[in-house]
């Protein structure tokens, strides 16, 4: 079945082509590169995997709650509106919210696929080109697994949201290679890790949990890639250049935080959109979730040297400054261990 028939909204509303200029950088230096990046490249080669083999696609999903998530994860849960709904309407909300979330993962991974191919083309050093090439394969696999989950198990999908589209526009049209790194490797991938973790750690459906666990294993390397490359490059920038990148990071963080209002779902289901958005914004659980989205981003931004007054004020306003001292490398190592644990459970006799 064509994907077009799965979308709850006309895809023509959000389909677009990105116009931009890209400078291709060849390099004739094949030695004396960054040892950290070469080690990451070696790791990326070893950790390639086949989605058709590593995941058990024979597992069924509950059509009423495909990922097996608690209703407490729904921002309008417990409100007067939620309590007034019958079970049939609640099923529609569960299924559509989960499909909406996975759809944005799928579209974001396609954005990452294109952005990483651009990094191969534009980055000036050979070791970065090598590693980025492994990530291109990773991103293709991620699009594959989310598309397969939505097509075969959910049979439902949503087009890309305006906020994600806007952020990808900015990342893909900027000709500077480091802005692609900053937007994709640090910001989008960093936020994705936190969003994936909420499903990996709480979904009762084993297939949905495993998809996110294995994607996170790859994403851990991707964020490390951005951190290593930019940590060496950003000290070379002028104050004005660094301030421009901080401004971009601040705007991107606000955009990403607002990705989770689920406006398209409320519209599609015929629920009062403004009322639902207010409930999402005031939900204590959603406030906690939206701050936790920055668990991976804040320490990485600090580590790469974008830590001026502008960005510190923004993170203070968002209530996420406490993440500045999080052990980001420790979290990434844990992501790899969790994926190994999923492999071990699958190998264990039933």
Write structural notes for this entry:
It is globular and about 65 Å long. The longest helix has 36 residues, at 87-122. It starts with 34 loop residues before the first helix and ends with a helix. The protein has helices at residues 35-46, 51-54, 80-84, 87-122, 126-154, 162-173, 177-202, 206-233, 239-257, 263-268, 273-282, 284-292, 297-303, 309-318, 328-347. It has 15 helices and no strands. It has 350 residues and is an all-alpha fold. Helix 4 runs antiparallel to helix 7 (177-202) and helix 5 (126-154) packs antiparallel against helix 8.
Q: Which SSEs are present, and which pair or pack?
A:
Blueprint: H1 35-46, H2 51-54, H3 80-84, H4 87-122, H5 126-154, H6 162-173, H7 177-202, H8 206-233, H9 239-257, H10 263-268, H11 273-282, H12 284-292, H13 297-303, H14 309-318, H15 328-347
Computed CA radius of gyration, to the nearest angstrom: 20 Å
Shape: globular
Q: How many individual β-strands?
A: 0
SSE string, helices as H and strands as E = HHHHHHHHHHHHHHH
Helix content: 55-70%
How large is the count of helical segments?
Answer: 15
Low-pLDDT ranges: none
Distance between the termini: 34 Å
Biggest β-sheet: count, sense, barrel? none
Q: Overall pLDDT, averaged?
A: 91
